[in-house]
C-alpha cells in the first residue's frame, strides 16, 4: 500500500523516504515543484504536485492513500494548513497519519508548541489512527549556523549555558519509517531526544574538533540576537516564536532525555559527537569562508 509523504524534499521527509525505500515500501511524495524533486522520481518515488495552501491540489495526491506522514515547516498559517490536510485526508479515505510535531507540544506556552498541539488535537478528533512524533531541536539545525561559523569562528545564540537534548533528524526519520509501516504505534506520542543534554559551548567544541578549527559559543541577549537575525532577513514572527522557546529552554524545558529512540530503533540514539563528525565530513566546505 502506497504511503504519502509531505515535506518530501525536506530534512525529515527526505530522510524518511530514504528509510522507507530501503524497506521497499511504495511511496508517493507530495512536492510543490516536480523538477526540484526529480531525484526522488529517479529513485522510484511517485511524485504528486500539490501545496497544502491550495487544498484543491490535495485530492489527486491523496487518491488511494491509506497512510500518510504529515510534515510541514513552521509557517504563520501552519495550523490552518495542517488541519486542512487532515480534513482532506479523512475525506479521501486515509486511515492513519503520523504527524511530525515538537517536544513540549501541549506543555509549553511557546507558539510552535501551541500550534503543534492544536494540530495534534485536530488529528486525534478526526477518528483516523494517529502517532505524534515530538522531537527536540534537530542537530541538523547547525546548517543555519555554518555560514556565520565560516565568517567569524563563532556560534551566536541566546540560550545561555542551558543543556539541550538535541536529536539527530536521521533518528527521527528512522522512527517515522517504523511508525508508518509497523503495528503498535497507534495513539502514541513519542518525545524524541538525543542521548544526552549538552550546551552550545560543548557543541562549539565538538564541531571545532570535527572540523579541526577553533569555534566558540557567544551568548547574546535575546534582543541583540533578534536584531542581528532581523537584519539578516529572517521574519519577525519566526524570531519572536523562537525566542519564546529559548526562554522556556532557559528554565530547563529542553533538557530531558527520553528512551523512545533506543526502544523503537533497538539501538542508541546518535550522540552529538557522532553527528558532528558525520556532518563535518559531508558539509566541510560550508564551515570555511
Ligand atoms: N528544526 C527543528 O529543530 C525542529 C525540531 C522539532 C520539530 N520541528 C518541526 O519540524 C517541522 C519541519 O520539518 P523539516 O525540518 O523536515 O522541514 P523542512 O526541511 O523545512 O522541509 C519542509 C518541506 O515542506 C515543504 N513545503 C513547504 N511549504 C509547503 C506547502 N505549502 N505545501 C506542501 N509542502 C510544503 C518543502 O517543500 P518544497 O521543496 O516545495 O519547498 C519541504 O520539503 C516543523 O513543523 C517544525 O516545527 C523542527
From TrEMBL:
A Pfam entry, by short name: NmrA
Transmembrane feature ranges: none
NmrA-like domain sequence ranges: 2-226
Domain of life, source organism: Bacteria
Annotated protein name in UniProt: NAD(P)-dependent oxidoreductase
Organism (species): Chamaesiphon polymorphus CCALA 037
